[in-house]
Every structure is written in C-alpha cells, then in structure tokens.
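Lecture 7 notes: from sequence to structure.

We start with a single chain of 285 residues. Read the sequence below before looking at the structure.
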Amino acid sequence: MKHPILPIYRLSGRQEFILDYHSHQEYEIYFFHSGTCRYLIKNQIYDLEPGDILLMDGKTLHKPIVSPEKEYIRSTVHFSPHWIETVLRELNAGYLLDVFRKLQHCLIRTNENQQSKKLEELICRLDELYRMSDKNQVAATEVEMKVIMIQILILIDKMGRANSYKKPDTKDDKTDYVENIVTFVQEHYMEKLTIDSIAKSLNLSKSYLSHLFKEITGFTVMEYLMATRLTQAKYMLALEPDKPLKDVSFDCGFESASHFSRYFKSKVGMTPKDYRKLQIKEEGE
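Now the structure, written as tokens:
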C-alpha cells in the first residue's frame, strides 16, 4: 500500500482489489453493509449480517467469500498503525489499537444501531479526504484524516465493549469441518501434503473433503494450502533477510526452490529476491 491509510466507502460487487486469500501489513476495519458474505479469517468462518464490523491485524490469511450473482456492499479502512500511534501515545490512547494487536481478528455485531451509522459517516468523510489528498488538493487533509481516524477508533472501542467482541454463533457441521481443515493446513503447511493425506488425517473421505471445502469457501483445499505457504514465505522473506531462498522455500513447504520462485512471481508479480529487496527498502524509509 503506497499510502499509510486507504479508506474505501461502500464498495459494491466484486470490485475489491483482491478476492483471493491474502494478507497485508496494515490493520483493517471491514464494515459489511448489505448482501451476502461469508468471511474466512485464519481458521474462523463468519457469516456476516448487515452492520457487522470485522477488525483484523491484516497479517492473518483472510478472504471474503461472495457470490457474483448476489449483492455485496462493504466499506474498508486499511491503515498502518505507525501512521496513527504517535498521536495516540500523546493522547494516552494507545489502548485503542489493542484490539488489533491482541485479538488479531474479531467481529462486532452492531445490528445497524446508531453507533454503526455514525461510523459509516466517518468512513465516508475519511474516503472524501483521502481522494482530496491523493489529488494534492488540500495539504492539511492528513491532519483531519488523523482526527477522524481517532474518532473511528474511539467509536469502535465503545461498540466493541458494548458488544463484548462477539464470537461467531454456533455453526453447522459443514462449517465446523471446514474450520478443522483450515486449522490442519495452517499447522502442517510446511509438510508434504496431498488431498489424500489431509483427508486421512481428518477421518474424511477425499471426495467429501474436496467438495465440502469448495462449497463453503469457493476455493480448493490445495489453493488454500498454497496461499498459506505464500503468506508464510512473504513474512520469512521480510523478517529473515539473510535466509537463503532455498531454505525459505523448504521451510514453507514448497517442493523445490524453482517451483517456489515460479509460484511466487505468478501470484505477487515479482521474484522472491525482488520482493525481499522491496521490503528491506521500505523498512529503511
């Protein structure tokens, strides 16, 4: 993300910049307005209702699961904690980021109350200011953006306390099975896995496992496995700059260094080596 904050107000349809399994360094506020969406974060599946707010640290693999034939309207705010935490510290309000740091992800079910309507207004204004800032129309817009972002964080903190950072309701057996599959993949991605080995470990038939995962998530188990490996590789490249690429490849479960390089470039748009250079450069800025 080129900017330290990226607000998007009431995005509709499948126009989102990415609908694949993904992760990012920025914190994310996701506000679901209307339509149908099932959201997978790590090993948790959330069936969303209008007014639901998801808070994510961004680093955990996540993906909205939506139908192209159905309505899907949401607002999002991606922001770097470094962009706002200095101001929060001066206000003795660093606790406002604790929900992202400590919980990694959570759901607030607002049932479209007055506070959620106020949050929508704030995100709308933040989006307007961002567009002005992006066009260099007003030099002071960043100050106002930070003020509004603090208001958003205060409001979310109040809503979260009132709603006790709700966990998903009781799920059906299919959702439980898929969450178990996701958990298994996350714990064993570095190993040599096949559909057969995963199914055997979970006491499920190969055909049922494949069909069920595709039905609930829209993706295959192997696609999720590779996305998990890719996410881990990106972290390793950024956090261990001296680690040989072949070791990164092996530790993340890729069958070979050449396969790792090809797959990485096809998904990220650059080689692992270039990605690492970019991360080191951005860290130094």
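The first strand starts at residue 5 and ends at 12. Keep this in mind for problem set 3.
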